[in-house]
Amino acid sequence: MKNELKMMIGSEETILYEGKPDKKCFLFESIFHPLLPVAIIWAIFDLSFFNQMGIVGMRTFLIPFMLLHMMPVWIYLFGVIFSIRKYQNTYYIVTDHAVYLSSGIFAMQFAAKTFAELSRIDLHRGIFDQLFHVGDIVITTDQIGKRNMPVVLTIGSIANYAEVYQLVKKLQKDIYSDVMYPNDLRPEENHGYRTKYKG
């Protein structure tokens, strides 16, 4: 997975950060998912209803229906069971030009966004992030995705979240500044943002 993601990086780029999410936090967030209470209540309701049916023939008839009706439970269990594979396929790389992410369970997904395409960088720390001393860098892009919402990339559950946040924020500001106020085009009285970007 790491090698496949690195194949996307240009020869002129320098890797400044690469890593994976914290394993414990990643698995805890997969298990204690918002769907968990729904799955528990749904399973209790369906199983109690099924057990109250006294006629054997009726039970046999209801088995296919109940298996289909308990779909929220199966979706939750599927997410938990395959969280290890999802963890193995998740990798993050930040270069001096772009952010690269890989994810997926069966079908692999690779995302790459240059810093010029990033519109906002936020830091998020949920309950499990705080418990395991990790954090998420949430990157909003200028690309519009499904439901007319901006495409969001997340470098999630990493230990050195503060350093990576500052790194991504600085690179985005430097490149944006260079695009808006190119060094070669600045008049002598306008020194711009004094960026050190050399790309």
From the structure above, extract its key features.
4-stranded antiparallel beta sheet; 199 residues; single chain
Report on the structure:
The protein has 199 residues and is an alpha+beta fold. The protein contains eight helices and seven strands. The chain has a four-stranded antiparallel β-sheet. Strands 5-6-7 form a three-stranded antiparallel β-sheet. The chain is elongated. It starts with a helix and ends in a 19-residue tail after the last helix.
Summarize the entry for a quick read:
With 199 residues, this protein is of the alpha+beta class. It is built from 8 helices and 7 strands, in the order H-E-H-H-H-H-H-E-E-E-E-H-E-E-H. Helix 3 packs across helix 5.
Topology of this protein?
Layout: H1 2-6, E1 15-19, H2 23-31, H3 35-52, H4 56-69, H5 71-81, H6 83-88, E2 91-95, E3 98-103, E4 109-114, E5 118-124, H7 127-131, E6 135-144, E7 150-158, H8 161-180
Please bin the fraction of helical residues.
40-55%
- Whole-number mean pLDDT: 83
Structural class: alpha+beta
| C-alpha termini separation | 27 Å
Task: Compute the number of strand runs.
Answer: 7
Give the ordered list of helices and strands.
HEHHHHHEEEEHEEH
Q: What fraction of residues sit in β-strands?
A: 15-25%
